[in-house]
């Protein structure tokens, strides 16, 4: 198995990059090996982790859609969880996870702006909308994971940049 140092991957300032990841260990990947996608430099870094970590037995990117109801428009939407991983823990126990890669800031309810300028209120409203939608997506993902006998996990910069 080829070894890649996850610490050596420098994240892009533009986290909104997308691309196709080329696996070094294709036997670990579940699905079409030519369609491993990432939608940010952070997701790319997680692909490298999955591909290179001996603890990760199997993995896939955007493996399936999960339906959720948006609290914003009250309609059903599809959410593609970022990753599925099957990991062997240090005690030998094998666990399965549905994984979402997100900045820690998107997991916390945003604080209202100190000044109520138009621009600050627009930014706050967008952050609040993202938080509300993510909360609904994550609740649906947790239920879906539980039905599959696995766990839902949100990976943030705390994990990605402290490996």
Q: What does this protein look like?
A:
The chain is an alpha+beta fold and 163 residues long. The protein has a single domain (7-160), classed as Trna Endonuclease, Chain: A, domain 1 (3-Layer(aba) Sandwich), CATH 3.40.1350. The protein is built from three helices and eight strands. It has helices at residues 41-52, 118-148, 157-160, and strands at 19-20, 37-38, 56-61, 65-69, 76-80, 83-88, 94-101, 151-155.
Largest sheet features: 4 strands, mixed
CATH class: Alpha Beta
Radius of gyration: 17 Å
Q: Count the helices. How many?
A: 3
Distance between the termini: 19 Å
Strand content: 15-25%
The overall pLDDT average reads 89
Are there runs of 5+ residues with pLDDT below 50, and where?
1-14
In short:
With 163 residues, the chain is α+β, with helices and mostly antiparallel strands. It has helices at residues 41-52, 118-148, 157-160; strands at 19-20, 37-38, 56-61, 65-69, 76-80, 83-88, 94-101, 151-155. The chain has a single domain, classed as Trna Endonuclease, Chain: A, domain 1, CATH 3.40.1350.
